[in-house]
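Fold it.
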Amino acid sequence: MTHDMTRRSTVELISDAISDATALVGSEAKLMRAEMSDKVDHAVAAIGMMVMAAVFFIGALFLLLQTGVAFLVQYGLSPAVASVLMAVVSAVIGFALFMAGKSALKPAKLTPTRTINQVNRDIDVARQAVSGTDSR
């Protein structure tokens, strides 16, 4: 029986597999960090939009309320009724803006989906390599 010197030993193969797995985990960790950074940037931008919406909302609201009350008083409503009506309209607009910003912060929009998908693909490839099958 001849021993082929070009064949690698089991220890070498296991060592290479562990080395490759370690490198893969490191790459996946880098990908996750990059994607999470992107998601945090998205969250910060969404919060910034909500804050800016509030700033503009307050200034515009004051002017709109004054104009709306004056308009409604001119058409026969009492100042009190006109003020309440304008307050309700402004509350509805404010609520809509808040909900739009809140929607941008849903956990589903902040989940690192690309990293999860890549890890699942890597697991599938590793399973195929271990079982000796190829899905292609």
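The mean pLDDT is 82.
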